[in-house]
Amino acid sequence: MDLFNLPRRDWITFGLFALVVVTMPIWLTPLGASYPGLLQKFAIFAIFAIGFNILFGLTGYLSFGHAAFLGVGSYTAVWSFKLLTMDALPAIMFAVIVSGLFALVIGYLSLRRTGIYFSILTLAFAQMCYNLAYSVLTPITNGETSLQLTLQDPRVIDSALAARPEGLPSASIFGHVFDGFEGFYFCAALLLIAFFIALKIFSSPFGMMLRAIKSNQTRMNYTGFDTKPYALTAFVISGMYAGLAGALLAVTDPLAGAERMQWTASGEVVLMTILGGVGTLIGPVIGAWLIKYFENIFSAFNEQVLTRFFSFLPPEITEPVVTISSKFVGEGWHLTLGLIFVLVVVFLPGGIMEGVRRIGALFRRTTPPSAPAARPAAPTIQPAE
Amino acid sequence: MSAVTMDAKSVSAPFSAAASIERTVPLEAPFFAVKDVHAYYGESYIVQGVSFDIRHGEILALLGRNGAGKTSTLRAIARLDNPSLHKGEIWLDGQPLHKMKSFEAARAGVQLVPEDRRIIQGLTVEENLTLAQVAPGRGWELDRIYAHFPRLAERRRQEGVTLSGGEQQMLSIARALARDLKLLLLDEPYEGLAPVIVQEIEKILTEIKTLGITTIIVEQNAVAALQLADRAVILDTGEVAFTGTAQDVLDNPDLRQEYLAI
Amino acid sequence: MLNVIIGRLAPSRGAVVFDGKVLTGKKPHQINQMGVVRVFQTPEIFPELSVLQNVMAPAFAKRDGAFRINIWRSLESERGIEEEANHILQDVGLYERRSHHAGALSRGDKRRMELAMCLIQHPRLLLLDEPTAGMSRHDTNTTIELLKKIKARGMTKVIIEHDMHVVFSLADKISVLAGGRIIAEGLPRRVRRSEKVQEAYLGGAHRLEEATH
Amino acid sequence: MDAILAQLLNGLDKGGAYALIALGLTLVFGTLGVVNFAHGALFMLGAFCAVTFRQLITLETVTVDPTQLSAWGAPLEIRTPLAQTWFGDFGAVLVEYSVPFSILFAIPVMLVIGIAMERGIIKHFYKRPHAEQILVTFGLAIVLQEIVKAVFGPNPISQPMPTALRGAADIGVWIGLAPGAVSYPLWRLVYFLFSAGIIAAVFAFLRFTTFGMVVRAGMADRETVGLLGINIGRRFTIMFGLAAVVAGLAGVMYTPLVPPNYHMGMDFLVLSFVVVVVGGMGSLPGAVAAGFLLGILQSFASMNEIKQLIPGIDQIIIYLTAVVILLVRPRGLLGRRGMMES
Amino acid sequence: MTLITKGLSRRSVIKTGLAGIIATGVAPTIFTRGAYAQEFCNAPTGDTVTIGFNMPLTGAYADEGADEDRAYQLAVEHLNGGGDGGMIPTFSSKTLKGNGILGKKVVGVTGDDQTKADAARDSARRMIERDGAVMITGGSSSSVAIAVQGLCQEKGIIFMAALTHSNDTTGKDKRRYGFRHFFNAYQSGIALGPVLGEAYGKDRVAYHLTADYTWGWTQEESIKNATEALGWKTLAPVRTPVGAGDFSQYLTPVLNSGADVLILNHYGFDMVNSLTQAVQFGMRDKQANGKNFEIVVPLVSDLMAKGAGSAMQGIYGTSNWDWQLTDEASKAFTKSFGAKFGQPPSQAAHTSYVQTLLYADACERAGTFYPPEVIKALEGYEFDGLGNGPTLYRAEDHQCFKDVLVVQGKEKPANPFDLLQTVATASRESVTYDPAIFGGELGPDTAVAC
Question: Are E291 and E346 contained in the same domain?
Fold first, then answer.
């Protein structure tokens, strides 16, 4: 069957990735990140970054407005909750479709330009969405207050099927409400599906076309390809990934705020992708995890935590160490993030995945006989090395 | 490297260590030397171990088919960023060019007149010439240039890029003369010019020859180049295929047929 | 001239007609889909892809048309196209290097690969812009042999070439252009004799004679 | 009519700020080919030069008197200003005119910061892809603003303008309208004149000096300028420093209008990139024209009459203009072909 | 499809009329108090109890956030028996003994809400899910308060809102698990109206510049109603984006609009900027309609007044509390805060501190951390001695009712913190309104396991 037809190597990648994702609640415990809220974020932003990488990593088009699709997905999902049902599946479906349509329109217009002009066009569209969501579209978006569930929501399907429950309902799937870790596993399942589709795209002729567009778009035209629909398809697919991520944000926490669409949010996914490694399969996921980890864990450190952490030091050293390190955590976590970016970009232009590859190469050099030969057909496909 | 016929001088090492430090070199000794130069455009291996040398005041024609690496060799000598020099030495009058950046090479006396002339947009004819005299090492004064190139004098206030092709070529050569130069590199000086203009440029180049400026000329029109040149080097896919006098090439139909297709 | 045919430049007047259809005004990919394929003077390739992928891509254009979302089949299960590509790579002598990065090839190899990229499309009209520039003598001869072989398969070709040796060993009909005009046209031996051609194109052969005397 | 005139003034004022920042950004892009996401941070650093200068000249000796308690229960502090003690009346003038004086302080500081930034980090990124330039300068911007936050705290620090320049000027009277018809804050007029002056100075510098000629030549064809023996890299480094000074001065003069805080640069960054692209990447006149154009458009779009006609237009006008211009004119208003298109 | 609350579904006895609306579906099952000790989210098990402090450490309201942080440190210290006890001795309820809450030592965890609804919910979730916070408090923007309040309702965690002034927080978006001590825009309008009428007369034309979101709209509405009742006319309001920085393009049209009063419905740094810029436009020296042009800022805080500097002098507004109040409780709090941090507390610090104490007290009185019981203890609670005089936590909407201060920017400050003077006090009775006017439903108090 074509659908599950993947090279063995990609299956291994997928298997390992699935194992890592499924066991996240375990191996993240010592890192203090094993609680549902953050785990869900890990899964959701990994989807977002994987989708973004399909556009940026494969075609080379740098979109600076991808958060708009995330926001559209969230709003659509919350509206599905409010109007129809608390079931997550229709919400996700609608979100993916609507954000796909948005991506189609914005992509169609933006892809008329290339390079930084494309980036600025996407940025401008996203900023327009953001500003309108904040002001004029308040009836749809509830402005700065964010779109939330209310007790007065019609929820026509739910009301027709069962008596209205007291209080605010939670998102569910076939009547089953997630608690924290179930919510994570639901997101993780979707992450695996999303990852699988990305794997398929990366190893398909379609993926090769996208890479060829990145490599030499003019040549693609003279080779007989109409590159516009290819780029547009990639744009729409990645917009749908963003919509899925947005929907999942709403499923795990039924609220949609305009700031999800702000350019800083779009910038964040760019950073995630580049930090992890553009054009690699795993890189964006790692980038997403790293940034979300920093944002949630580092920002929560304060001087008490640091004092406890450095308590093994002699007291006269502890204080200066705590003072200095406190500049890098808590409120100062952005400083750490900025420094990491600068260091990664200066020393590891290919992102973290390049670092992994370099280490891998070192390791291989020490054990030459087992060095695996490069895959003959596709040296540029670098999944999960 | 099948058809390499090196002359005796170029085989022997052109510089001893002592000579390389010496600033003034006797006329007979090689004034300029390229030793085993390898250069890359990105990942493409373009110049694959080229060596030759020139005596002071000599004109060398660098010939070869399209894509043989002639322009790349000139650019490598002028120390431009592309192609990047991976190996080899370039010596001009005792100065190690291979250790320099392009602006340092230019100060050391190398002047490249590029294939596409590279008149700078937005600058007048006069500004294009003044630009050459900003860095230390002035050559001809503007008056002398204008005396030699009256057409440029007429158009000194005009924007350089609006000149005709031949005038641009003159400006490009004049710009090189405005610097204190020891080695002139001419890349396709006749390319794309009408025959009348070609004659005019030829006249200028002949004049330059009489001034005794050491020159390397790359030209598609091999015959024209060989008429001007004292000696010739033929490149084939980035390697030296022949070194000899210009007359050797003209007298050897097989050589011409094989490497120059004339 | 080739740029006009393949749609890179638009002619101010006149039209390009191929097989009864007007090419002018068509987009480059449409022209390619009609079977007009070009080898560029400076190699136009996909430097980030492997040699094999470079050659496979045009085969997809031939098979699937200008646009098709082909996600569900893996690249490695496209056996037919891979074999065809391998075959052509053997023809041009790049089979051993099929998994190399195309960007790392030498200029001559890039040109041969580009030739392979065009041949895999079985074009009805093949435009060659100095196909042997940058190749060594030996490679040039190999390429001529290859082109002769293709000629035997009955493919129309237009060659732009400075190297008259190549031209005369391949062409059935020659047009000589100078300054944007056709100055001579016809069978090779007649063109060879034309004085205008000698003057404008062959590097002033009469001057050569003067100089050698 | 009066309202339109007032709004036009406001647009010119805003446009001046946009143009000034976009000018510096274009200068860096045109010379070094670097997309500098840290340019907003330079603007912010300029503003904090003014803050630092004022804090230095308003330094006070603080002595704590533990015997007396303030109204909120802390020991009473006795403060003596240093500037007045040392310089007397001049100290008072210095404090009064701290913002204009800090220009003198900001020029060398920004020059050094700019040159250090270029030599330290940006020079390694000339040949790297634009995406990496964006990332490294973005990271740099974060680092710079976080350092400022660590030193000056997260809150805006208001900078008083000189008393003489407070309040509004009755412009209407100058052009023969009724008194009070069109009045505009004096400092905003000063800001507009200042930005126009700086823009003119930058253009004059590039037009009429040899250094400027070399830089223009380098922007057009860096390689050839190198072939003529000019160390263009060093001159571009100085240009980076100058761009930093231009951004910094824009920041200094902006402080009395909006109290500076550590993230003010980021707020301006996106806007200034839109301005640069609308003007055409690498085109200095384009950047200036686009700056004024967008400033005026934004100002007019904020008028009630227009907002009632098209709700929300004031929020999106800049981006809408950018989209329209880029779709109609692919390279912006005055952009060059092929610049940044891949 | 039915809602299944994991763990247990249990409601307390219905007390209020409003709650009747919700009484559908599940029948109440009543257990004895001791039985449900472990059956709600984050029930404290060891000898400590964790409280989540969620405030803006970065962003536009960082100033307020920093002061809230100080207040929380102080509250934790006092609850655990440290320091001078602050307002604990003056508090009318005497349950707090300085031994933590119910004998468990209080531990605080902090999070940065970035003044963004999304980030605030993230941060609150982290404190609930990872750190085991049994109560969340903080926030200094109404949108954040409403967002976090919604989350807390879902998670069954009590949310003691700090600085939030929108009518919606205890109006249409009110929640059973959310409580607000701070006053609201409606009360500001009632308190401010008479003072404005007296100072500026009955014949005025007002121009509103309004922050374009829930709080701005409710405040604009409230002030419009209050001033129009005086006889003032209102021009079409102008909405400005939050965090605009430069408001000049919105201020320019004011001058030629025919208005003679400018009402700034802005908060935080937006207010600081719009006010100083309005003054730069010469609005305070201007004459319009034969009267002096005036500016009103309905909600002011001492921190904003500090930011605006001299621009604030003489301008009217309302405040929840001021450190210069002379009652025993205010003096005790100011002294305690001033001694520890070297500066007087802001109203943000005050409300944060009070909310923490009120929660602790409610737990003590309920004898448990079980949220439905704590909610019951807070609903309809009447107390005094926390700085605002006698105060009621109204059961219907979880809004506190107390006197509202009308303040004016001081012309000649005696010290850097002497910025506002109280010019009038609106009595608790006068600012009490019918909870029905804002609608909304509190929802159930069902405990939720996590």
Answer: no
